[in-house]
Design brief:
Layout: H1 12-22, E1 29-30, H2 47-58, H3 72-83, H4 88-91, E2 95-101, H5 102-117, E3 122-127, H6 131-139, E4 143-148, E5 150-151, E6 156-157, H7 159-168, E7 174-178, H8 191-204, E8 207-212, H9 222-225, H10 227-234, E9 240-244, E10 256-262, H11 266-284, H12 290-299, H13 302-332, H14 340-344, E11 349-351, H15 356-366, E12 368-369, E13 375-377, H16 386-397
Parallel strand pairs: 1-12, 3-4, 3-7, 7-8, 8-9
Antiparallel strand pairs: 2-10, 5-6, 9-10, 11-13
Bound molecules: 4'-deoxy-4'-aminopyridoxal-5'-phosphate.
4'-deoxy-4'-aminopyridoxal-5'-phosphate (PMP) binds next to helix 5.
């Protein structure tokens, strides 16, 4: 029956993990991982998450199904976190929201909703973007295209290219925007550039579709990382928003996320939510409950939330420190190249500017593994390996 099924191509990132595992060298470094590691290189379960789980265990909740759009206390608290408790759309009860299978599920529900109800089925993605974006939207029946984003020469934002492409796109096109900590480049627009993007999006009647997978995890501040989302809402844009609690709560495998749409009125919100249910029901019926309970236990308790915020900041600060250490070490080794982008970029990923050949050399000669686009995961850097890493990068980039 399946004789005609062809072998699919391997996942680029998983390939790196394989190669890393095979390498026998003791001081090998894996910079391909998309999850946070502490300074000893180990995965982290946040103390606030452990505390929330202990409370949940003691409260002996049953395991009955959540509603189709999830646990309502969770979706309310997730919306508060993203939009701000004082947000006009929350006060006016015009945010349609559903719990999702983490950020990927939010993107998929958003994609399905657009396919069904948005007049244009085109969606513009930054070039480059998280590799799964195009796959998710294509699977939803949309046509992903790209807008210029990254400038190889400056290892920074191609702001003129971005604005030009948004201006040249057909009016009313959906545009995917990374709310903060752009993956894979680590390059974000400045607040002033966001304001200009908002103006163009408004003038063109484009539909701003935000993916916020790193709120708090980028800068260490929930508010700062939500700047673009909240600014667009203040400017009257009816945005779409995908949220993930994978990174900022370290709930990766628990699959905790939310998808929301700003509606014009409370009545419109109700109609949209009824359609969320119609989309979700045949896909997975209703979302998992454990992770959403953890998140709402944390967000719903002032003391536990404060503890969590401090923990998020610790993670963000560690990455900011590792960026600085990497740059300092490269300079101390006498590298004459400009490494300013290492510290000006933000989040878990850094586009080093290394070529595919240089990346191959890193793996072969130094047992340092990262993707061939030169993206390194800052989470894989520790105070113990940063010196050797800098040496390796310096040697291959001389
Ligand atoms: N969007 C972006 C930009 C991401 O980097 C990721 C995770 N790497 C996601 C969405 C989704 O992740 P998850 O489904 O684990 O929440």
């Amino acid at each position: 029956t399946w004789a005609s099924v062809k072998m699919g191509p391997p996942d680029a990132i998983l390939g790196i993990t394989e190669a890393f595992k095979k390498d026998q060298y003791e001081q090998k470094i894996n910079l391909g991982v998309g999850a946070y590691r502490d300074d000893a290189g180990l995965p982290v379960v946040l103390p606030s998450v452990i505390e929330a789980e202990e409370r949940l265990l003691k409260s002996c909740l049953d395991k009955e199904y959540a509603g189709i759009t999830g646990i309502s206390n969770f979706t309310k608290l997730a919306a508060d976190l993203a939009y701000g408790e004082e947000s006009i759309v929350l006060k006016e009860d015009r945010l349609a929201v559903t719990q999702t299978i983490s950020g990927t599920g939010a993107l998929r529900i958003g994609g399905e909703f657009l396919k069904k109800f948005h007049p244009s089925t085109k969606i513009l993605l930054p070039q480059p973007s998280w590799a799964n974006h195009a796959a998710v939207f294509r699977s939803s029946g949309l046509q992903p295209e790209t807008y210029r984003y990254y400038n190889k020469e400056t290892i920074g934002l191609d702001f003129e290219g971005l604005i030009e492409d948004l201006k040249n796109a057909e009016d009313g096109t959906a545009v995917l925007l990374h709310a903060c900590a752009h993956n894979p480049t680590g390059v974000d627009p400045t607040p002033d550039q966001w304001k200009q993007i908002s103006e163009v999006v408004k003038a063109k009647g484009h539909f701003p579709f935000f993916d916020m997978a790193y709120q708090g995890f980028a800068s260490g501040s929930i508010e700062r990382d939500a700047f673009a989302v909240r600014y667009f809402v203040e400017q009257g844009h009816q945005i779409a928003l995908c949220q993930s609690f994978a990174k900022n709560m370290g709930l990766y495998g628990e699959r905790v996320g939310a998808f929301s749409l700003v509606a014009e009125s409370s009545e419109e919100k109700a109609r949209i939510e009824s359609q969320f249910k119609i989309l979700v029901r045949p896909l997975y019926s209703n979302p998992p409950i454990h992770g959403a309970r953890i998140a709402s236990t944390i967000l719903g308790d002032a003391q536990l939330k404060a503890q969590w915020l401090a923990e998020v900041k610790t993670m963000a600060d560690r990455m900011i420190t590792m960026r600085q250490l990497l740059k300092d070490n490269l300079e101390a080794l006498g590298s004459t190249q400009n490494w300013d982008h290492v510290t000006s970029q933000i989040g878990m990923f850094c586009y080093t500017g290394l070529s595919g050949e240089q990346v191959d050399e890193l793996a072969q000669k130094w047992s340092v593994y990262c993707t061939r686009d030169g993206r390194i995961s800052i989470a894989g850097i520790t105070s113990g390996n940063v010196k050797r890493l800098a040496q390796a990068i310096h040697e291959v980039s001389k």
